[in-house]
Amino acid sequence: MPFRLSQGQTRHNDSRARSCWEKPESVCRGASLEWGEVSSVPAPKQAALKWEQPSFDARPYLKAGAPPACYVSALGALFGEDCMAVLPHIKDGVVDTVFADPPFNLGKQYGKRSKDDMPDAAYIAWCKRWITECCRTLKPGGSFFLYNLPKWNIRLGAFLDELGMTFRHWIAVEISACLPIAGRLHPSHYSLLYYTKGKPNTFRRIRTPIQTCRHCGGEIKDYGGHRDAMNPRGVTLKDVWTDIPPVRHWKFKSQERRANALSTKVLDRVIEMSTAPGDLILDPFGGSGTTFAVCEKKRRRWLGMEIDFSNEIIDRIESGEIRSHRNDDYVEG
Q: What is the DSSP letter of 155?
């Protein structure tokens, strides 16, 4: 089982190769044998060598006096703190992409240190503080993705405009689990804002498979009679995502953190669209650890914060517990 850390300690993946001899207790105590006598004690068994990569060094990205990370992998560092206790300690212009999925201020119960029932004005003011810090940490040409309810993102998008960020897309991520609300249209999407700090350094085209009927296998659209001219790898990703599966099964979400979790497919697209291997991604609201797991899989470096569930994130990363949803996207470049 992964071990816990006392306050001030950091868990590391060491760079050394480890081997050990597992000796039965009776052998360790030293039972003497005569020549030719066969021992009834099993011979000691050599454990497999475990080679591990060097740990990620967060120091080049942090100012002096930054709080210590509670976990360090080969590619990233996790801080078990409120994001506003860490973000001011990140240097200017070092992050390639920010992905933020903050609490939606719906009065949900997260952890003991979280507050999800602020007055509207206080919630917006709080969001503006961490958004300002995140934008400061972005490199020129870096990307900012903000996942929230349309109610909040329309105001926060206007604030990103005020900060001089460049609007790219309002991505509608379809949801199917939301219940109808009396007197209103049926809410059926979350908003994923996509801004950049000027002209984007990286934008990779993503293609999605041509849709087919799940019953007969035939193609659903005729594309205005131009099907023969279509790229065989699929169609360019739209700004309306109707193919994001809900995270319902426990193999995709934490047993300890009962709040909703994001599908890995959302992070697949955000990361592939805006970064290249080796780039640095910042997520100030770690949640169930999906961003960090996708970064590890796709060889991106990462910095993350989580105020309540850092231990659960560590366990999920170490155990490989975070499963990926199927994704048939094709990424160009």
A: H
Q: What is the DSSP letter of 266?
A: H
User: Could you state, in order of their start, the residue ranges of all structural domains in the chain?
Assistant: 78-205+239-331
Report the pLDDT value the prediction gives residue 15, as an integer from 0 to 100.
39
Beta-bridge partners for 144: 98, 195
How far apart, in Å, are the Cα atoms of 18 and each of 44, 132, 224, 246? 17, 44, 61, 40
- Span 78-205+239-331: which CATH code? 3.40.50.150
CA atoms within 13 A on the CB side of 259: 22
CA distance 195 to 212: 32
Q: Measure the CA–CA gap between 159 and 171, rounded to whole angstroms.
A: 17
Whether residue 127 contacts residue 102, with contact meaning beta carbons closer than 8 Å, is answered with yes
235-248 per-position pLDDT tens digit: 999 999 999 988 76
**What residues does 22 pair with on adjacent strands?**
45
Tell me: pLDDT of 27 over 90: no
pLDDT at 22: 37
Residue 252 binned pLDDT confidence (cut-offs 50, 70, 90):
very low
Q: How confident is the model at residue 260 (pLDDT cuts 50, 70, 90)?
A: low
Q: Do residues 197 and 138 touch, judged by C-beta distance below 8 A?
A: yes
The beta strands (E) that lie in the chain are given as 11-12, 21-22, 45-46, 71-72, 76-79, 95-100, 138-148, 166-174, 189-196, 206-208, 235-236, 240-241, 280-283, 301-305, 330-331
- The closest of 315, 275, 289, 299 to 75, measured between CA atoms, is 299
Q: How far apart are CA 295 and CA 289, in angstroms?
A: 10
Closest CA to 90 of 77, 102, 99, 103: 77
Alpha helices, H only, the chain = 25-29, 83-86, 120-137, 150-162, 264-274, 290-298, 310-319
Place of tokens 């860490």: 86
